[in-house]
Amino acid sequence: MVISKIITRDFVFAFIAQFSFSLSFFTLIPTLPIYLSRLKLTEAEIGILIGVFSVASLVLRPFVGRALLKTPERNLMLVGAILFTFTSLAYLFAYPSGPSSCQDLSGNRISLLFTSATTLIANISPEAHRGQSISYFFLAFNIAFALAPSLGMFLINQFNFTFLFLTCTGLSLCSFYLRPV
């Protein structure tokens, strides 16, 4: 059966690491502008800081790709997960000028973890079913994208931003501990 060839131990751990990473990332997307506005930043500053996520990720991806030629995917996933945990915690202490560096590190963690995990899946998948395997893997990203914004808004409405950032830190630790070894 094809599915048993695709769903291996490494696939499952990479899937869970990607899901927890994506859940944390997409939880922050709708909530960070609210957090930054409470820090008295202007709308333009908030827009720039949110945009730093994508720019930092895009700038680093070619370097991650080059590093993947020499470094195992699992090692770069580890670095991404460590950055992921650090930046999630840093939001608790980033007042008022710190969000910029947090956003920059967030972009770096995106490119490290996501690019490395996707490359790992491509490399461990059976060649005849690589597309199917990557499609299953991207479900982690898509499911998190569907659930996380509502989760983020729920957390800040029912609790506070400290609880949100601690939740993201916990998800970060999941992506750290539940990555392929």
SSE diagram, text form:
Elements lengths: L1 H5 L2 H30 L4 H26 L4 H21 L5 H26 L5 H29 L2 H17 L4
Helix pairs in contact: 2-3, 2-5, 2-6, 2-7, 3-5, 4-5, 4-7, 5-6
For the record, the CATH architecture stands as Up-down Bundle
Termini separation comes to 25 Å
Q: What is the total number of structural domains?
A: 1
Number of helices: 7
Considering the protein shown, what is the CATH homologous superfamily?
Answer: MFS general substrate transporter like domains
Percent in strands: under 5%
CATH class: Mainly Alpha
By helix and strand content, what is the structural category?
mainly alpha
The overall average pLDDT, rounded, is: 84
Largest sheet: none
Series of H and E elements? HHHHHHH
Residues in helix, %? over 70%
Which parts are unreliable, with pLDDT below 50 for 5 consecutive residues or more? none
Radius of gyration: 17 Å
Any overview of this molecule?
Helices cover 85% and strands 0% of the residues. Helix 2 runs antiparallel to helix 3 (43-68) and helix 4 runs antiparallel to helix 5. The protein has one domain: MFS general substrate transporter like domains (Growth Hormone, Chain: A, Up-down Bundle), CATH 1.20.1250. By secondary structure, the chain is mainly alpha-helical.
Quick gist of this model?
The protein has 181 residues and is mostly helical.
List keywords for this structure.
mainly alpha; 181 residues; 85% helix; single chain; Growth Hormone, Chain: A
